[in-house]
Amino acid sequence: MDPREVIARRVAKELKDGDLVNLGIGIPTLVANYIPSGVNVFFQSENGIIGMGPEPLEGMENPDMTNAGGMFVTALPGAMAFDSAMSFGFIRGGHLDITVLGALQVDEKGMLANWMIPGKMIPGMGGAMDLVTGAKKVIVAMTHTGKGTPKIVRKCNFPLTSIRPVDLIVTELAVIEPGPEGLVLKEVAPNVSIEEIQKSTDARLIISDRLCEMTL
Amino acid sequence: MDPREVIARRVAKELKDGDLVNLGIGIPTLVANYIPSGVNVFFQSENGIIGMGPEPLEGMENPDMTNAGGMFVTALPGAMAFDSAMSFGFIRGGHLDITVLGALQVDEKGMLANWMIPGKMIPGMGGAMDLVTGAKKVIVAMTHTGKGTPKIVRKCNFPLTSIRPVDLIVTELAVIEPGPEGLVLKEVAPNVSIEEIQKSTDARLIISDRLCEMTL
Amino acid sequence: MKTITRKELTEIIRPGSSAMIGGFLGCGTPDEIIDELIVSRIGGLTVIANDTAFPDRGIGRLVVNRLVSRAIVSHIGTNPETQRQMIEGEIEVELVPQGTLAERVRARGVGLGGILTPTGVGTVVEEGKETLVVGEQKYLLELPISAEFAFIKAKRADYCGNLSYSLTARNFNPLMAMAAECVIAEVEEVVPVGSISPEEIHTPGVIVDYILVRGCR
Amino acid sequence: MKTITRKELTEIIRPGSSAMIGGFLGCGTPDEIIDELIVSRIGGLTVIANDTAFPDRGIGRLVVNRLVSRAIVSHIGTNPETQRQMIEGEIEVELVPQGTLAERVRARGVGLGGILTPTGVGTVVEEGKETLVVGEQKYLLELPISAEFAFIKAKRADYCGNLSYSLTARNFNPLMAMAAECVIAEVEEVVPVGSISPEEIHTPGVIVDYILVRGCR
Prior knowledge:
The complex is a heterotetramer, with two copies of chain A (216 residues) and two copies of chain C (217 residues).
Chain A: H1 3-12, E1 20-23, H2 27-30, E2 42-45, E3 49-53, E4 74-81, H3 84-92, E5 98-101, E6 105-107, E7 112-113, H4 128-134, E8 137-141, E9 145-146, E10 149-150, E11 152-153, E12 168-170, E13 174-179, E14 182-188, H5 194-199, E15 205-213
Parallel strand pairs in A: 1-2, 1-5, 5-8, 6-11, 8-12, 14-15
Antiparallel strand pairs in A: 2-3, 3-4, 6-7, 9-10, 12-13, 13-14
Chain C: E1 2-4, H1 6-12, E2 18-21, H2 31-39, E3 45-48, H3 59-64, E4 68-73, H4 80-87, E5 92-95, H5 98-109, E6 114-117, E7 131-134, E8 137-142, E9 147-158, E10 163-164, H6 173-179, E11 180-191, E12 210-213
Parallel strand pairs in C: 1-12, 2-3, 2-9, 3-4, 4-5, 9-11, 11-12
Antiparallel strand pairs in C: 6-8, 7-8, 9-10
Helix pairs in contact in C: 1-2, 5-6
């Protein structure tokens, strides 16, 4: 299975019926494809909608209906449109149950850096700082390393997105939960050893007493 | 002419075409009856509407359409409804051209007290503090005295509504403009002498060089 | 979101609760929720609202029935009973400028730690509050206000709990729906999901806990 | 409110102006106003917007045409040209978290002196800013942001200038309409007064200065 699909499938299992969910660009967007049956969630998009649906069929695009990545989307029955202040009101005000974002780095304290590589790439924080600060649950969905370089590090050296720690890190190799003692390895992907995971991880991992295999 | 009508007619002449106007309860409400012809203004009401129209005909009242005094009103074509934060956004944000309010006291510095008589009557400030602080032009419309007691005083001893001075005071006797030197008497009602006005006024009045008779 | 009956309200709302209640002099107030509070004598309430309406209307009826121990409102002038109870020390009243009240409720709902307003500077409203000077203008720091419940009134709901308000009955309702822990909305009708357009929905169903349909006992 | 043509825009907007521009990655951006700025080479602009869109779309085209000297935005990741100009010092970019940008624009429009937000605390966004602790939580004091112009895009206007937005094309537009000295709205059509319901009007005509109808040269 494609690593991106592994990540998206595992994250999708975190969604509960009735949740208000915001998916970031990239791998997080794929999560929408794997919502467990019987689970109904509402997707919020920063640009001003709750109840966002999938990509429209060709020829049915509307220029006034896009997601936070600028792609055409649809509105599901019961969708609601609003302005940017209201949109971030939902996010900052604690009404968003889950946000799923990508990362450049996550560290031992659960700190996330995802909006800038000094001197190299400065896309800007967009809505990420508000999302990480305000959502009830923050899930990082990312490949375990970036071109072989560990993204799970001892301490972020890229600028932080927030001082609020993330709640869960899901990669194609593992599920890791930041806790008071550090990063706890909770699940490993099939046919992947703990040693392999630790080798691809700069931060020290604490092995959970209840370590299990990742199911998708 | 009824003193209240005199006041309302004179205030109405201050309204300019296109103005966004908020009228308080009591005499200010009467202003709407005397808008000069050719002048089109938009009435805003704190409870959430721009484009408020007159009282409905009997049998055409709607429980969801009232003014800030709780009376049934109508919506004119082009009316807009909004929530209380937006409503005071227009007021505090400087979008309201004119607010017309009643007063308990106005003083030599143009300070207004209109929401409480200590130990006696405490209706509360409602929207008055925001209106006086935020409107571009604040007009006090009131009878010159309250049961013989001057309402235009040297210094308010009732709690202030705002530290922003009012722009104009209109009574059945006079039009008075607060300025850096004090209260300037600008217009006197027909058949009323300056002496009579000063006698009903606790504050010292400065007689304008261009004093004229009030026209209605 | 769950649809409930008037009787079920009494299992959810405990005496002594704090509640934001929508409405402006009774317009846009959830009257049937108020009816039930009165019938079931759920008292000792802290009420956050624009006003206490009239003795025979809206929130005023809660005051007359002595169910309110504390009121945080902008105006009590239309309800002599509130003034009487306040003067005799039977009810505690905190007066807040209307625009400030709206922003304090909103601040809570949208996760702000406070707002700076020029309203109230130099008046008794300033007492006990932190002030800040920004660009030579002085402002009061006004803090968010929260409550256990929001009792709101909407015109319509759909079966997802999305709410739509009507004309001046909107007022504080959408702000309060964002700011309280448990949101109970009284509506005139429930319509199929998808029959309210995205622009006409003012409060999303995901933040509404219970719907009480008027006339459904 | 006055209806104007594209040519008249050039008499109103001076080079070196500050302008808030609606839109989110080009969705809800007034494209014909941007066309005219490009054709008439009105440059040296300070742009306040959510983002700089794409090189061939929306505000991105102003950047590519070198009409922007300063941008206050939340995101430039979709426009490599903005990043290039920033790195080479040709354009000044201030990055603001999206929710903070929305509240700063709103604060100006509704007359607040600032807002306290938890967003950005402990990050580079905190640098140079006043912080306040309210109830053990630390907040940044974020200040209002204003501009000479707001260039906004609405779906419809009526002949009073009342505006109605569509779906996700709403975004920053209604906030910006409140916050700028001169508001120029580009609309797809103008309809008779009274044909947009009070609940569907998002920006009142009284705060709109000019309307440009798409396709009217």
